[in-house]
Amino acid sequence: MVRGTSLTARPLSRAMARSTANAIEVENVSKHFSLPHQQRTTFKEHFLHPFERTTYEHQEALQDVSFTIAQGEFFGVIGPNGSGKSTLLKIMAGIYRANSGSVRINGRLSPFIELGVGFNPNLSARDNVRINAALLGLTAKQLRARFDEIFAFAELEPFVDQKLKNFSSGMHLRLAFSIAIQVEFDILLLDEVLAVGDQSFQTKCLDTFDRFREQGKTMVLVSHDLDAVAKNCDRALFIRQGRPVALGPTADVIAAYSS
Fold first, then answer.
1. Looking at the DSSP assignment, which residues form a beta bridge with residue 25?
2. Residue 92 belongs to domain spanning
3. Smallest Cα–Cα separation from 29: which of 72, 112, 89?
4. Distance of CA 162 to CAs 122, 127, 137, 158, 168, Å?
5. pLDDT tens track for 201-257
6. Count: domains in the chain
7. Is residue 90 part of a domain?
8. What residues have CB less than 8 Å from 149, skipping those under 6 apart?
């Protein structure tokens, strides 16, 4: 059973007070994966063992997860490694399809799910920005207007024409996040955006969160950084082994997780 209280148990943020409509509705979502015990990847293996059947292990990633997120709300998702947090975010982003249940998204979505997804390491940062911006819906005119800002925010101006395979993980993250926040969106999904990067960039991210909150944007943050979740999130969800454990005011959910 999910523990916690409703959103109205604590004062609403200014953005949330402007609208009580839901930006995201997740209802009875479950997701499982079938993991093969052995894999035959070559023709020789298939030829030598033509009748050998591959057996699978059934892994439950999420089980009957339900919650709603109000428009303009900053919502946190916490839990130990392997609890299903990132899987949940990918289902919300439409990357994974749930085996059962439903997800309703009311607004334009900008997902920042995994570090470096969609990047080509053999292309320059300039070319990767062009490709990813187009995939996220920016027009050529919009990209030209925001190109310099993307690299300025990421603090990567000297590396515009350097191939991404020479970038550090922190440089990858700064570039990917800088692209994601330039897209016109109503809902921003963030997976461990504060896990990589120096203190200066993390502070810049937090300042950006404040600006988006004032604009009434909806944000969902998956993070192990409980301090960041406590400082930014109106409510939170604690999941463990794919099951919801606590849902409600952030302080109460963090207390449940810590205990």
1. 68, 104
2. 13-35+59-108+187-193+217-259
3. 89
4. 9, 10, 24, 9, 12
5. 888 888 898 999 999 999 999 998 899 899 999 999 999 999 999 999 999 999 999
6. 1
7. yes
8. 178, 182
